[in-house]
Amino acid sequence: MVHLIAKYDRCNDYIGTPATDKTRHSAAILESDDDWNEASDPEFDDENDDVVHELGTDSGVEEKVNAMFTPDVSPDSDYEKAKNFRCSCRYGEGGPCSDLFSPEEMIRRRLEMLSLSPRDQMLILLGKISCTIHLGDKTSCSKRKSQTDRERSRTTYWLEGQQICIDTFRFLHSISKERLTSLLKWYKTEGLVPKEKQTGGRKNNTRSLQLDDIKEVVTFIQQYASQNALVLPGRVPGFKRDDVQLLPSAHTATKVYQSYKDSLLGTERRTVGPSSFRSLWRQLLPFIVTSKPMTDLCWLCQKNNTLIYRSANLSEEEKSKRLLEQEEHLRVVHLGRSLYNNMVTDAKRACKKNNIKDLGPAPPCSRPMSQHYSFDFAQQVHLPSNPLQPGPLYFLVPRKVVLFGVCCEGLPKQVNFLVDEAHTISKGSNAVLSYLHYFFEHYGLGETDVNLHCDNCSGQNKNRFVLWYCAWRVAVGLHKSITLNFLVTGHTKFAPDWCFGLLKQAFRRHAVSSITELESVVNESAVCNQAQVVGKEDGTAIVPFGDWQKHLKPFFKPLPGIKKFHCFRFHTDSPGKVHVKEAPDSPEREVDLFSIGVCETQLPRTPPKRINPPGLDLQRQMYLFTKIRDFVADEWKDVVCPPPAPTRAET
């Protein structure tokens, strides 16, 4: 409907920019339909200027309308088009006919055509077509003595005594292929008769939208957004614009439209249809959007946004205070994300410089470079898994598989540790450090300096044992320096989540019954994913679990207030000490982690004592055997759900 309003640009000046008659007519021609009848255009008065200016109050709608309705007819753009235009015929003097016309002459002829009204253009084109179209019963080939019966009409194109091709004719007359074809068909059936709209044009169309109708829709949506939307500082995740007004997810377009209809009940004003309502919303108010349901969002952001939303009746000082709190939080988040991105960029540059194209193993400190790794747990999966899920399996608890990923973002490649339920000791620090230590030994690139990133989960990553492990690696010479960085809670989307997403997509498409089949699915899910089985279903362990907590506890002491820090740095020049910062731009403070009387020479060089996998208890084995076995592929029944047997501990 808004497109129809654009056709009135040649009759009024509501766009607001001065233009010559040619430019104004050009805008009308480019925006109008091919068969538009100018005689049906209504007369507009100067009141429309005020209407459109009111549409643009406080939201940039006027600029949006101008951008939509103003075509590109600048001399520079037309000159480039004319300069670059070249046909492929041979009607010219030994070359294409487009070479017969200079760019300036092409522009002059195009502007002459554009200066005419659509009806006048149509009459001129129909006149030229009538002079050059061949509709006789016989062909008119000059090289033949006898002519044959004509099978189809033929049209030649001339300009001031010079034959030209159809491409040059269309370009010089600024006419589209569709419009020329439409006029040819019209002439063949109706002859030299002006083409009129069957409906009589917009003048006789009582259903077309007027500017007042559009004004009411835009004003309503703006007022609705001012009462219900959130104008948040910073960029909202999932939206490219930073001026977005976010409606709650429950306020769908249907609900807003219903509120619009209810607001017009009992009045004589016209109600716009739902499709036109949505179209006007998308075109004129794209910065007002309905949020989508999301997960794993920052609670602090949500709390601050709620306070901002409810601050309508508060004083300006209180509003400013709440906005400043949210802006400071977003500033810290931005610093953390920038630090992460810079480290990833440096890691990729280091791999390219050293011509590293795959993971290790490599001896410790064998390459004088820095590398970046990220690690995280993913949501566990269940075996067996079937894309055509059997109904009863939905209510059961199949065999669980824990996923832990370590991503080398310089390549990028991620090693995904597949931990069967029988080999799951916990998701705590012992498991995290065992996987990390195995990764450095078997997949590390031999870098001297390591940058690590992970989330803020205190039970898994942000605890004293992970700090002790980093300090231990530096002190015993496995690395020269390590930085351990934690992303702000709620803003922790990073490379492992990307690789886990590709893995889960492939997993949902395949029927998987065993760890072996899951390993194949992970390896084939993407070039960045690589599987590492921790242990088989029968109890065979591949990745050893170590008791790192007891191994390091005699030599280190806890760090007070660990949760408030986000950046930790360890260096071989100060063994046993950690440099901590609350934010990337905060001042650094040094803290000694060694226990009293401990030095780096006393630290153990051997790995910790192994923890044997717990296995499945008899009750769980019985459940898998009786409830899950029927859903497993026949060749894996005795592997995934074998007959129950007591474990060593139970024996």
How would you describe this protein?
This protein has 21 helices and 16 strands. With 651 residues, the protein is α/β, with parallel strands linked by helices. Helix 5 crosses helix 6, helix 10 packs across helix 12 and helix 17 packs across helix 18. It has a nine-stranded mixed β-sheet, with helices on both faces. Strands 5-6-7 form a three-stranded mixed β-sheet. A two-stranded antiparallel sheet has the order 1-2. The N terminus is likely disordered. The longest helix is centred in the middle third of the chain and has 38 residues.
List the helices and strands and how they pair.
Elements: H1 2-5, H2 21-31, H3 47-55, H4 61-69, H5 75-84, H6 103-114, H7 118-132, E1 133-134, E2 154-155, E3 157-159, E4 162-164, H8 166-172, H9 177-190, H10 211-228, E5 230-231, E6 245-247, H11 253-263, H12 274-284, E7 288-290, H13 299-309, H14 316-353, E8 367-383, E9 399-408, E10 413-420, H15 429-442, E11 447-454, H16 464-475, E12 481-486, H17 495-509, H18 515-525, E13 529-533, H19 548-552, E14 567-571, E15 577-581, E16 589-592, H20 618-628, H21 637-640
Parallel strand pairs: 6-7, 8-11, 10-13, 11-12
Antiparallel strand pairs: 1-2, 3-4, 5-6, 8-9, 9-10, 12-14, 14-15, 15-16
Helix pairs in contact: 3-10, 5-6, 7-9, 10-12, 13-14, 17-18
Attribute tags:
651 residues; 9-stranded mixed sheet; elongated; disordered N terminus
